[in-house]
Every structure is written in structure tokens, then in C-alpha cells.
Amino acid sequence: MERLFRQYDAGKDGFIDLMELKLMMEKLGAPQTHLGLKNMIKEVDEDLDSKLSFREFLLIFRKAAAGELQEDSGLHALARLSEIDVSTEGVKGAKSFFEAKVQAINDASRFEEEIKAEQEEKKKQAEEMKQRKAAFKELQSTFKQ
Fold it and tell me: What is the pLDDT along the chain (145 residues), one digit of tens a residue?
């Protein structure tokens, strides 16, 4: 996945922007409209910077594996067209195919664990913020009397 990401990161800045995504989709044989490309980015753009980091790029494949992408979406097409295909690897490439598949599964597992950890951290921070606000309001009420 990282090789595919780097292949289309023409600016070598660690992100795939709108034009790089357009080029990627055209080369994969699934060109998208400008609006379609923007929607693809928007669907996985966690940091709202209108471009895809490697982490957000991996999120596409996690969502595809979980069946969370619409069949007619550009992201579904990207995930489907970027899968490791045994027919292109051939019999001689079977070992590398299975090694790559195992690596892809391991990467997805690590990615999911990382997402869960981040979500738990966000929940913890929100709860702490809630507690601080409640404590502040209680302290504030003592001064209002």
C-alpha cells in the first residue's frame, strides 16, 4: 500500500492532493469527476486538510474491507482496483502474492488498533473536559452567591 501511495504522491510531500488523486484514478481506469474526487477525499479526510495522508489512504482499504463503502463510490473503485491480484502475479509470484496479502492484513490490523486507540484517547479527553467544566461551574456558582 505504501508503494502505491508513494507512486502517486507526485509532490513527494507525504500527501495525495486532488490532482494526484485524479491522476491515480485515471491510471487505474476509473476516472472521476472533480466533485467525485472531492467527495472521495472528504469521506476519509480526518484532519480536514483536503488531501490524503498515508493514514487516510489506508483508511480507504479498511473501510472497503469492512464493507463501509458504497458500491458506486470512487473509493470503492480505488480499493477494488488496488487489490493484490493473483492473475497478475501469476503462479511464479504466488509466494510473494501470499506474503504481500499477509503483510496487507497485518498492516490493516495495526491500523485498526491505532484508530481504536486514538478514538479511546479522544473519548478520554472529552470526558476530562466535561469533568473540568463541571468543576468550573461548581466553583463559579460559589462565587455568584
Answer: 788 888 888 888 999 999 998 988 888 888 888 888 888 888 888 888 999 998 888 888 888 777 777 766 777 777 776 664 444 444 445 555 556 666 766 776 777 788 888 899 999 999 999 999 999 999 888 887 6
Burial of 20 (0-12, 13-18, 19+ CB in 10 A): buried
Residues 6+ apart with CB under 8 A from 53: 14, 15, 47
Q: pTM of the prediction?
A: 0.52
CA dihedral sign of residues 137, 139, 144, 145: positive
Q: Which positions ≥6 away from 135 have C-beta within 8 Å?
A: none
Residue 75 and residue 60 in contact, taking contact as beta carbons nearer than 8 Å: yes
Q: Domain spans of the chain?
A: 1-82, 91-144
Measured in residues, the chain has a length of 145
How many other CB atoms sit within 10 Å of the CB of residue 62?
18
Fold category of 1-82 in CATH: Recoverin; domain 1 (1.10.238)
Angstrom distance (rounded) from CA 75 to CA 39: 9
